[in-house]
Amino acid sequence: MDISWWGFAALAAAATLVGFSKTAVSGANTVSLAVFATVLPARESTGVLLPILIAGDVLAVLTYRRHAHWPTLWRLFPAVAAGVVLGTVFLLLAGNDAVRTSIGAILLLMAGVTMWRRRGGAEAASQAPATSGGRVKAGSYGVLGGFTTMVANAGGPVMSMYLLSAGFRKLGFLGTSAWFFLIVNTTKVPFSVGLGLIDGRSLLLDAVLVLFVLPGAYLGKACVNRIDQRLFERLVIGATVLGGLQLLLR
């Protein structure tokens, strides 16, 4: 891949942000997604970014593995699998512009719905998720999450909106999100290889960029206990809106 020094610096910064988002503000890596899609061809960028995300997922699981809420994960996985299959079909048929517009619109919609619900006081501030309408809600978000994560590695904000709307507190949010994305992103690898998104060239670039994930994850772990719950939620929603706008306006 022909990448300038400025381009590589941008990718390195984006990889650092991946580490930070995985251990502090989940959903912030939508900014990384936009950077990768700007420096690299949009389609190929998803294949380069996936192994970096998996490295961040491993670090997040090592940090927050005890805080996951597994009943929520088991509710989500069947719908997510369906979304991944739909995303794979969409990648085979749609162009880059259609992909970018669709994902950006979904992210902004999820952020808008979540802000509306929180303003109405609908969420409970508990460690475990709310149960009313749980299966329908998990199914809807799960399909969207699987679709967006397969198409553009943008499932983080969708799942963030689900976990926030379900009333997760900070550590439960991070632990559940960590396990979710480690499992989902790992299962996406064969699909990405089959689509030609991951190859020898992309893995060589990943071998260098993954080194920048480590300081980002360390910084996130150091900062997370200093971020209160209200600020945490605002940062997650803000990162989601920013990522959606970048995808729509690029």
UniProtKB/TrEMBL annotation:
It is a multi-pass membrane protein. GO terms for cellular component: plasma membrane. The keyword Signal does not apply. It comes from the Bacteria. Pfam families: TauE. Coiled coil: none annotated. The chain crosses the membrane at residues 47-64, 76-93, 171-191, 203-219. It is found in: Cell membrane. InterPro entries: TM_pro_TauE-like (IPR002781), TSUP (IPR052017). Keywords: Cell membrane, Membrane, Transmembrane, Transmembrane helix, Transport. Belongs to the 4-toluene sulfonate uptake permease (TSUP) (TC 2.A.102) family. This is Probable membrane transporter protein.
